[in-house]
Design brief:
The complex is a heterodimer of chains A (325) and B (102).
Chain A lengths: L1 H11 L2 H14 L8 H26 L3 H28 L4 H12 L3 H13 L8 H7 L3 H12 L10 H6 L2 H28 L3 H22 L6 H25 L3 H12 L5 H9 L5 H32 L2
Helix pairs in contact in A: 1-15, 2-11, 3-10, 3-11, 4-5, 4-7, 4-8, 4-12, 5-8, 5-15, 6-13, 6-15, 7-10, 11-15, 12-13, 12-15, 13-15
Chain B lengths: L3 E11 L3 H10 L6 E4 L2 E4 L2 E4 L9 E8 L4 H12 L4 E10 L6
Antiparallel strand pairs in B: 1-5, 1-6, 2-5, 3-4
The chains are: A mainly alpha (325), B alpha+beta (102).
Chain lengths: 325, 102
């Protein structure tokens, strides 16, 4: 227990968490601090490219093994299955409608790439290696949850149909294309390629991540401010309980397929994280009746800060204890 | 200067629906439109701002200037997309130069 508290304490005073806290506090205090949209998008592209590229380089250095295939399959299955669990929990814990519960469930089966980046950052800080291809697992886990949510709604008899072109949009979503594309560039060019551009994608990474998290804090704070009274205690409890359950499932799956300690922690983080970029956009197209204030506030306003501050150190400590790593 | 009567239709719609709306307009024969970013606003669904957003969040404004006789076709096409979504459709009378362009 003291180990978990110590890890959480160290994590809380890291620059990235404090940057997020600054954004959150500024938004809640109604400061006029803002990050321009173009800058936020630019930082997002930079982070996706850097994390994908470095993942590809790690694969080129360590080679491929059968765990890669198993990890990709595990990611797919988790992303399809976790929304079903989330939906069942939401129906028990909250009074959300069938459609709102399905929309929220989709967010909890998909992933937050920033939470993943924060997880890799914590691992690097503790010199724990992880499989480079976990980036590809992250990409695989983005979209299937949306299909599960649409199935849940269709099963409820709402008559909702799959929007034409939605599958193509999901698979060719800009973040997936960039993440997978930069992963392949990193895998093809390897250490030499990394040496060529490391001054751009390695050294400034943590600083850009701090500014990006400042922006995430601002968005989360604005969302919390505007959604007063929308969420009940049951929904907030779900947004904290669900990531812990998902992380436990990720831990079991990671151990089953033979991932390293770092890989297990990242699979736990991916399972525990909730989307707030790709899935909300898909939900606005596919399930316009669902209330965006509910799913955005839960994923970005509650689960994201929880994972960032307490969740990641908790998952790391639990994985270390269980694996003996 | 000679001017001609036209209708100006402005559709403020959620950004993820932009392509679907412009596809519907094109299918209905409305090939001329202008898309403008919207910085933020407030309405029945609450306040929102474009600041700091990284996904396809927020709203866009699609503006069409058309001959009055084409208005019903445009509205039918737009309605199929905007029906269930957050947004505003407004129509105003306008005067344009060079009528053959609309």
């Amino acid at each position: 227990m003291s180990e978990i508290l110590s890890l959480a304490g160290e994590n809380l005073i890291s620059p990235i968490i404090l940057s997020f806290a600054l954004g959150l506090a500024a938004a809640l205090a109604r400061s006029d601090l803002t990050i321009p949209e173009a800058v936020a998008k630019g930082m997002s592209i930079y982070l996706l490219f850097a994390i994908g590229f470095k993942g590809g380089v790690a694969v080129s250095a360590n080679g491929l093994d059968q765990t890669l295939i198993l990890s990709l399959i595990a990611g797919l299955v988790l992303s399809f299955a976790l929304p079903l669990l989330a939906f069942a929990l939401l129906r028990i814990m909250t009074g959300l409608s069938h459609i709102d519960a399905a929309a929220v469930a989709a967010h909890y089966g998909s992933i937050s790439i920033v939470t993943f980046v924060a997880g890799t950052s914590v691992l690097q800080g503790r010199l724990i290696d992880a499989e480079g291809y976990m980036v590809a697992v992250a990409a695989v886990m983005e979209a299937p949850a949306i299909l599960s949510a649409l199935w849940l709604v269709a099963r409820g008899g709402s008559g909702t149909k799959m929007e034409p072109g939605l599958i193509r949009e999901l698979l060719l979503n800009g973040s997936i294309v960039l993440l997978v594309g930069s992963f392949f560039i990193g895998a093809i060019t390897g250490e030499e390629g990394l040496a060529d551009i490391s001054a751009f994608i390695v050294a400034p990474f943590q600083g850009v991540l701090c500014l990006f998290l400042l922006d995430m804090g601002l968005i989360a704070g604005r969302g919390l401010r505007e959604s007063k009274g929308i969420l009940g205690i049951g929904a907030v409890a779900f947004a904290i309980l669900m990531p812990m359950i998902s992380a436990s499932i990720g831990l079991a799956v990671g151990m089953l397929i033979g991932l390293s300690l770092g890989g297990i922690v990242l699979l736990m983080v991916l399972s525990a994280s909730a989307s707030y970029i790709a899935v909300p956009a898909a939900m606005r197209v596919a399930l316009p009746e669902a209330n965006p204030s509910i799913y955005l506030t839960l994923s970005l306003g509650v689960t994201f800060p929880f994972n960032l501050t307490l969740g990641i150190p908790l998952y790391l400590a639990v994985a270390q204890t269980v694996t003996g790593g | 200067m000679e001017t001609h009567t036209a209708k100006r239709v402005e559709i403020v719609i959620e950004a993820p629906l932009e392509r679907r709306l412009t596809d519907a307009l094109t299918s209905a024969g409305v090939t001329g439109y202008t898309i403008l970013p919207v910085r933020g606003g407030s309405g029945r669904s609450g306040k929102w701002t474009r600041e700091g957003q990284v996904g396809r969040a927020g709203m866009v404004s699609v503006v069409c200037l058309i001959k009055p006789e084409r208005l019903d076709g445009l509205l039918d096409a737009a309605f199929t997309v905007v029906e269930k979504h957050i947004g505003v459709v407004s129509i105003t009378d306008a005067q344009v130069l060079r009528a053959e362009r609309f």
